[in-house]
Write a structure and sequence with these properties.
Elements lengths: L3 E3 L3 H11 L5 H19 L5 E7 L4 E7 L4 E7 L3 H10 L4 E2 L1 E6 L6 E7 L8 E5 L7 H12 L4 E9 L1 H10 L4 E7 L2 E2 L5 E2 L5 H6 L3
Parallel strand pairs: 1-10, 4-5, 4-6, 4-8, 8-9, 9-10
Antiparallel strand pairs: 2-3, 6-7, 11-12
Helix pairs in contact: 1-2, 2-3
The structure holds 1-O-pyrophosphono-5-O-phosphono-alpha-D-ribofuranose (PRP) and uracil (URA).
The site of uracil has 9 residues, from α6.
């Protein structure tokens, strides 16, 4: 079974308060999402491989380590996952970025796919799916289906807000995938929104409502 990591850190709790608030404007919402994504990435990248190398300090030549960015794939789920990409790219600028476009049908809450472009050698990469919201779990389960069909093997999922229903759905559909989340909220409402949540992440990132 993949692990469930819930960030339990004062910085995350502080930033979550402002991210949730309906008084936070679009600009600040985007900043906070990038910052929270970076804090999550610190834990989610703990086990990625490093290569041994050398480095010359002003005094001596010494052994050192490097991440092979060529072997990291960041896969935002459009739209809202785009809000997390920049934070991870700041930490790992050599990463490849693929995109999966999904939206939830408002009636059925099932994900509808409209786009997919993945890095070529995804089967040899460490894959990080980015989507701030894990609600019913349908969207990320579908994204993982798509990635596994393309050959991806080592997949981790990073989200900002999750809920028990989404975690259970994802762990059942893809028990091998580890979940990294800033917070596990109480539940879903009748419309499939997370409570207390933060509303519609895509709309808040891009000011579309
Ligand atoms: C949101 C969110 C997830 C999905 C989560 O996207 O970004 O992809 O809902 O819900 P689920 O766990 O119930 O599948 P949405 O469908 O609103 O599309 P958008 O980002 O284009 O607005
Ligand atoms: N998608 C969102 O953007 N917010 C939710 O609360 C649930 C799904």
């Amino acid at each position: 079974m993949g692990k469930l990591f819930v960030a339990d850190h004062p910085l995350v709790k502080h930033k979550m308060t402002f991210l949730r608030s309906k008084f936070t404007d679009v600009h600040m919402f985007r900043e906070l999402m990038q910052e929270l994504s970076m804090l999550l990435a610190y834990e989610a990248t703990r086990e990625i491989p490093v290569e041994e190398t050398f480095c010359e300090t002003p005094l001596v030549k010494t052994k050192a380590s490097m991440i092979s960015g060529q072997l990291i794939a960041l896969i935002p789920v459009l739209r809202a996952g785009l809000g997390m990409v920049e934070g991870l790219l700041r930490l790992m600028p050599m990463s490849k970025v693929g995109h999966i476009g999904l939206f939830r049908d408002h009636e059925t809450l099932r994900p509808i796919q409209y786009y997919c472009k993945l890095p070529e050698n995804i089967s040899s990469m460490d894959v990080f799916i980015l989507d701030p919201m894990l609600a019913t779990g349908g969207s990320v389960a579908k994204a993982i289906d798509i990635l596994k069909n393309a050959g991806a093997k080592r997949i981790r999922f990073l989200c900002i807000v999750s809920c028990p229903e989404g975690i259970a759905c994802l762990q059942k559909a893809h028990p091998d995938v580890s979940i990294y989340t800033c917070v596990v909220d109480e539940r879903l409402n009748e419309q499939g929104y997370i409570l207390p949540g933060l509303g519609d992440a895509g709309d808040r990132l891009y000011g579309t409502k």
